[in-house]
Design goal:
heterodimer, A: about 575 residues, 6-stranded parallel sheet, B: alpha+beta, transferase (chain B), ACT_dom (chain B), branched-chain amino acid biosynthesis (chain B)
Chain lengths: ~575, ~170
């Protein structure tokens, strides 16, 4: 009788196929080789993207997950392969990105012996993963992967790590994939309580100056329509967090801008003037609140949130509504009064004008000689499609691109929000592009960040992913330099960069590349890039010492937002 | 700052204790004492942790521990909301065994649980203050070793984990 058992390595691949995984971002090595060998026979079912570094693999998986809404999958070998994933794991955890990371491990008899390329990756990643496990038997592989996918994608999503010993990969076992539908100790979607909805509606209905702050929870919950319906009925002004961008079209009449350290003037300032603050799927990050002691003290806070640990964590609320906002928002919409808040909305618009003349016009329509980052984003807006995805790195360009990019649809914002990981954008843009080849993906990166993962240009070359890379080059670690200027007496300690010829590098990777140094060439260059069919590299040499304003300096209140 | 008992019910999963204590470590809250054991429910383990901190902090810790996939439910109690005991063992040289020591043992409701050639082991169950008081007295008897367990505690509020599991 034929043995129906298969190797653990093949069980890994067949389990991933069962979870409809279509891309693996990874890097092979000794301890994961049996899985790579099995993958060879499944090339028609799963595409593998060979990144140039494991950090690139996990960021690519993040970009893929954020745009597709599916679980991103990455794979690495033991030891350094596994530890190179740690930055991305921490990034995915804080930004609630669903990932399954599969790592090879030395054979189980060698565990704990400091064997070649052995690390305790389960121990390393324990604080940063939503869940992790080491598998030492082939029979345990499929259940671990099933549980991993369920945990990664459900509730508040996050990264999962499954470490598989080499002997488990080689061992024979039956394959029987049973998707995980529930875990006794894990309740990812708390049931929304009517009493909480009623209490929230009462507070909102009594408000004179209600104000909505929305975050990525709206996107994760696929609750964009429900959120819009709530706003349409109540007429309440709404501002977004960094990762909430795109959950509501910026064309919406009640959209009033962006929150936080480099957000818009009115949304920050008026946080301390509203009487009811309705937070939807956001976690009151310190970059949003500034000094907590002086944050919205006059307001009753209503918090709609999936994760119980976020409630009262930073800001004490008058009413909390625990549960998925896709469920809670329609219940709340039913109980709130129809209304308009024209006068209150006008207060935002008035301050918007102030910001426009003090900052926005100078950024978008500059008259000085040097090119600004803002005008580059202005041209990207001119030539982009509504559903174009903006992927940014970390720093000044990130804040400028976020401020001026016109978000029209959901899942168009991919950036490292919570961890602020430089080097994130290039691989994340690749993953975002592969998630949907029909969409434009624009990667805006600084000269500091690109050099942290610049080798991923090689992956873009190999996949031919038509990513548009826009390098805003100011020969500085710009955001650190801005802080040095404002808070460290202009002592520019190790922030100036002697940069390579980026165009030569891009061309060496077979990318069409253009460098712009003059304003008169910018529009055409952006237009050419956006209609180009393949990957494109556009370097724009921008003003060396430009700053990002408005700004709420660390430790200051939201009402101390500076325009210059 | 107050003393709290954090009571966690968990699946019996490898590394669970590590995952739980990491939450305390990250927030800089020192664990005064810790015990772990099976519970009366099959496959459900309980971890009892004593901490001295603020109520805001302990509430956040409880919520964070509940986010751990294998934690079923987590509670926290003030001292008057739990019935708890600790066990303390005192090793005394046999030469110290005299009528005075015998009197102390009776007075504290302690007992000798082992008598060896060179020493005896005295056991006392009670609250930390009681076992500490006995420790201080036993210093005069040339105490050789002292060990105290963490809390073993049950909550006074009726119905906890069973209700949650059955919901």
């Amino acid at each position: 009788m034929k043995d129906s058992r298969i190797r653990g390595a093949e069980i890994v691949i067949k389990s991933l196929v069962s979870e409809n995984c279509d891309y693996i971002f990874g890097y092979p090595g000794g301890a994961i080789m049996p899985v790579y060998d099995a993958l060879y026979d499944y090339a028609d079912q799963i595409k593998h993207v060979l990144t140039r570094h494991e950090q690139g693999a996990i960021h690519a998986a993040q970009g893929y997950a954020r745009v597709s809404g599916k679980v991103g999958v990455c794979m690495a070998t033991s030891g350094p392969g596994a530890t190179n994933l740690i930055t991305g794991i921490a990034d995915a955890q804080i930004d609630s990105t669903p990932l399954v990371c599969i790592t090879g491990q030395v054979a189980s008899p060698l565990l704990g012996t400091d064997a070649f390329q052995e690390t305790d990756v389960v121990g390393f990643s324990m604080p940063g993963t939503k869940w992790n496990i080491q598998v030492r038997k082939a029979a345990d592989i499929a259940p671990a992967i099933a549980k991993g996918f369920h945990i990664a994608r459900s509730g508040r999503p996050g990264p999962v790590l499954i470490d598989i010993t080499k002997d488990a990969q080689n061992e024979l076992s039956e394959f029987n994939y049973v998707p995980c539908l529930g875990i006794r100790s894990y309740r990812p979607y708390p049931i929304v309580k009517d009493s909480e909805i009623t209490a929230a509606a009462e507070v909102i209905n009594a408000a004179k100056k209600p104000y909505v702050l929305f975050g990525q929870g709206v996107v994760i919950g696929n609750a964009e329509e429900e959120f819009k319906a709530f706003l349409d009925k109540t007429g309440i002004p709404a501002a977004c967090t960094l990762l909430g961008s795109g959950a509501l079209s910026e064309d919406h009449p009640q959209y009033v801008g962006k929150l936080g350290m480099h957000g818009n003037y009115a949304p920050n300032l008026l946080t301390n003037q509203c009487d009811v603050l309705i937070a939807v799927g956001m976690r009151f990050d310190d970059r949003v609140t500034g000094d907590l002691k002086r944050y919205a003290k006059q307001a009753k806070v209503v918090h709609l949130e999936l994760d119980n640990a976020e409630i009262d964590k930073n800001v004490k609320c008058a009413v909390s509504v625990l549960g998925n906002c896709k469920e809670s928002l329609p219940m709340l919409t039913e109980k709130v009064n129809e209304g308009t808040h024209d006068e209150w909305l006008a207060a935002f618009r008035k301050l918007e004008e102030k910001e426009k003349s003090a900052v926005v016009s100078l950024d978008l329509l500059p008259t000085k000689i040097g090119l600004t980052m803002g005008e580059v984003i202005r041209y990207i807006n001119d030539y982009k499609k509504d559903d174009a995805v903006l992927v940014t790195d970390v720093g000044q360009h990130q804040m400028i691109a976020w401020r001026y990019f016109k978000y029209k649809t959901t899942r168009t914002q991919v950036t490292s929000g919570g961890l602020g990981t430089m080097g994130f954008s290039l691989p994340a843009a690749l993953g975002a592009q592969l998630a949907d080849l029909s969409r434009q993906v624009v990667c805006v990166v600084g000269d500091g960040g690109i050099q942290m993962t610049i080798q991923e240009l090689g992956t873009i070359m190999q996949t031919k992913a038509p990513v548009k890379v826009v390098l805003l080059n100011n020969d500085f670690l710009g955001m650190v330099r801005q802080w040095q200027q404002l808070f460290f007496d202009k002592r520019y300690s190790f922030t100036e960069l002697d940069n390579p010829d980026f165009i030569k590098i891009a061309e060496a990777y077979n990318m069409k590349a253009t460098k712009v140094t003059e304003r008169e060439n910018l529009s055409d260059a952006v237009a050419e890039m956006m209609i180009h069919e393949g990957p494109y590299f556009l370097e724009v040499v921008v003003e060396k010492e430009d700053n990002v304003f408005p700004m709420i300096p660390t430790g200051c209140s939201v009402e101390e937002v500076r325009l210059s | 700052m107050n003393r709290y008992t954090v009571s966690l019910f968990t699946e019996n999963f490898i590394g669970i204790l590590n995952r739980v204590t990491l939450i305390f470590t990250r927030r800089g809250v020192n664990i005064d004492a810790l015990t772990a054991s099976e519970s009366k429910e099959d496959g459900v383990h309980r971890i009892t942790i004593e901490v001295t901190t603020t109520e805001d902090q302990v509430l956040q810790i409880v919520k964070q521990t509940e986010k751990i996939i294998d934690v079923i439910k987590s509670f926290y109690y003030k001292d008057d909301e739990v019935v708890y005991q600790e066990i303390a063992l005192y090793k005394i040289p046999i030469s110290s065994l005299d009528p005075g020591l015998e009197k102390v043992i009776r007075q504290y409701n302690a007992r000798i649980i082992s008598a060896e050639k060179e020493f005896v082991v005295i056991e006392m169950t009670g609250h930390k203050e009681d076992t500490k008081a006995l420790l201080e007295i036993l210093q005069d008897f040339n105490i050789l070793e002292f060990a105290r367990s963490g809390r073993v505690a049950v909550a006074k509020p009726m119905g906890t984990i069973e209700q949650y599991l059955n919901n």
